[in-house]
Specification:
The protein has a 5-stranded antiparallel β-sheet with strand order 1-2-3-4-5, with helices on one face. It has helices spanning 54-82, 103-108, 111-143, 149-163, 171-194, and strands at 2-4, 7-14, 17-27, 30-37, 44-45. By secondary structure, the chain is an alpha+beta fold. It has 5 helices and 5 strands; from the N terminus they run βββββααααα. The longest helix is centred in the middle third of the chain and has 33 residues, at 111-143.
Length: 195
């Protein structure tokens, strides 16, 4: 729980992981949830249907949808047990009801199409990062004997290969990048100890 820029909310992440914000309130029988990625003032709505930041937004968005569905099932079960009727739907950000299709689906005409389009975008990004990691590792290997720049390339390659490449369809390139980067580190250590 944090208090920043006049807002009190829950946050997690930062540094190595995306910064995720969450707050909720209950008023007049309506549960209001807000969830976003990024800092207050620079936050991205996780349900805006845009691909910018999709790799961070989509898993978080899906977890919020799962929370809303769980709350809706619990409420329905409660009313069935008590013989009452459901009067107030559980609502999320901007009045999104659980029964309504997700905002991604509204913009891309159908939940399956939205999920597929987002998954394709994430896969393309991961595949691209696996290729970049591989070529950076090759460059790092070429420059290992004559440049300190090699270690920067090595670090960038390792990060891309482990964080994105191993999750991609080009995971073989990511594994090759990791092996090459390990060889570069071994050679660098040899040079340091021999010199």
């Amino acid at each position: 729980m944090v208090f920043e820029k006049g807002e009190q909310y829950y946050k997690t992440g930062g540094v190595m992981f995306p910064l995720q914000g969450f707050k909720y309130g209950y008023q007049n029988g309506i549960l209001h949830l807000e969830a976003w990625v990024g800092k207050i003032g620079k936050e991205m709505n996780i349900g805006d249907g845009k691909f910018l930041g999709a790799a961070a937004k989509i898993p978080y968005y899906n977890s919020i949808l799962a929370l809303l569905e769980t709350l809706e099932r619990a409420k329905s079960a409660y009313y069935q047990q008590t013989g009452g009727q459901v009067q107030t739907p559980v609502q999320g950000q901007a009045g999104m009801q659980v029964q309504a299709p997700p905002l991604y689906a509204q913009q891309l005409e159908g939940n399956n199409q939205a999920t597929s389009a987002v998954a394709d975008e994430v896969n393309k990004s991961n595949n691209r990062n696996a290729k970049i990691a591989f070529w950076l590792s090759i460059a790092s290997l070429i420059l290992v004997f004559g440049s300190k720049f090699s270690l920067l390339l090595n670090l960038a390659s390792y990060t891309l290969a482990i964080k994105y490449g191993l999750k991609s369809q080009k995971s073989g390139l990511a594994i090759a990048a990791i092996v090459i980067n390990s060889i570069v580190i071994f050679i660098t250590l040899l040079i340091l100890f021999i010199a």
